[in-house]
Design brief:
Strand order of the largest sheet of chain A: 2-1-9-8-5
Structural class of chain A: alpha+beta
Radius of gyration of chain B: 28 Å
Helix content of chain A: 25-40%
Oligomer: heterodimer
Largest sheet of chain B: 5 strands, mixed
Largest interface: A-B, 26 and 31 residues
Order of helices and strands of chain A: EEEEEEEEEEHH
CATH class of the largest domain in chain B: Alpha Beta
Number of strands of chain B: 6
CATH architecture of the largest domain in chain B: 3-Layer(aba) Sandwich
Number of strands of chain A: 10
Helix content of chain B: 55-70%
Radius of gyration of chain A: 16 Å
CATH architecture of the largest domain in chain A: Sandwich
Shape of chain B: elongated
CATH superfamily of the largest domain in chain A: F0F1 ATP synthase delta/epsilon subunit, N-terminal
Chain lengths: 135, 292
Amino acid sequence: MATLKLEIVTPEAKVYSEDVDMVTLPGVEGLLGIYPMHVPLMTQVVAGEIIARKSGQELFLAIGDGFAEVSQDRVAILTDMAIKADDIDEARAEEARKRAEARLQEKLTDEEAATVQSALLHSLTQLNIKRRRRP
Amino acid sequence: MPSTRDIRRRIKSIKNTAQITKAMQMVASAKMRKAQQAALAGRAYAALMNDVLAAAVAGAGSFRHPLTEKRPGERRAVILISTDKGLCGALNTNLLREAGRFDKETTVFVCAGRKAAQWAGRLKRELAAEFTYKDSPQFAEARAISKFAQQLFLEGKVDRVDVIYTNFINTLSQKAEVRQLLPVGDIKALEAGLEGNGATKELGGVTREYLFEPGPADLLGNLLPHYLNYQVFQFLQEAKASEHSARMVAMKNATDNAKQLVKDLTLEYNKIRQASITKELLEITSAAMAMG
């Protein structure tokens, strides 16, 4: 059976690079499920959850905003944050969320506000995924 | 002939200097390792981004984004990325020599780093803005610089934007380079613009037909500014890696020179000391002989 090469890259590092059977990713216009031999596609992705299925196992990752390029045998995702669900530290994410929310109450320049907003989005995404997956 | 006391004093002061430069070398080398890692880690992202952008531009067909518009005018902005502090060898000298080549009348400077701003002030160059960036560059800092440059370009105040920065080649060699940032050139230029990433996939020849979600115009509209922000970020990182490497090498040379100097002075000190002992002995023996 054909497989897809899933590559997730952030400015800091290449977070994930493996062959998988199927990928679900959050596009701007809704969730996209991608199987091998998908028609070439270029899309923006929004902060959310990526599910990579590999030989029956599912792997969850939290990602930030970014772009994805899909070709027949490859899914390349460029994003500003990517973290495996298992690696999410709930306490730290919660703390980051509180800090960002507190900062938003202050008077900020546009530039600072954008930074804080994206930090808030990152922590919220992580929290969402972590909490949903709790048994 | 200097007295032994003078030489002792000099040796002491040189030893102190060596201690300081040695400490600075240690600090620089620790920072260098971090900065180099950051600069290298970013290259995978840059390579992939290049791929995506090249495919998007190819797929967008006849669509032209304002950031890619070529204009005939002469006015240009130069983003000059220097260090904040000196003591890093010829790094800034080389950088500013490149900057000096630009025509005074038609160029405005956007400075990042204190040395660049000082230079612009000293030579009465037109300074459009001054930015700072931290020891480990943050993406937000790069975004601020890049946004400013994009605005200058889109408002038609300048017709092109270049970047002068120090490209990190390896610990011993860094090179001041000029790169065009805006207008965003054709895809070929983009690929050349990121040499050294080593991982650029082959795209030439096979132009795949892409679906775009949202449309190609929207996608490019979002991708291009991000691409530019990221380019600037990468430039900052390269500049930082270069700065710390250059400083480490400069401080190492200074420490070595100081050590050599101490060695030479110690030799001279011992010579003088022995000469004076010999002299004293002579005086004593001749006095003894005269008495006897």
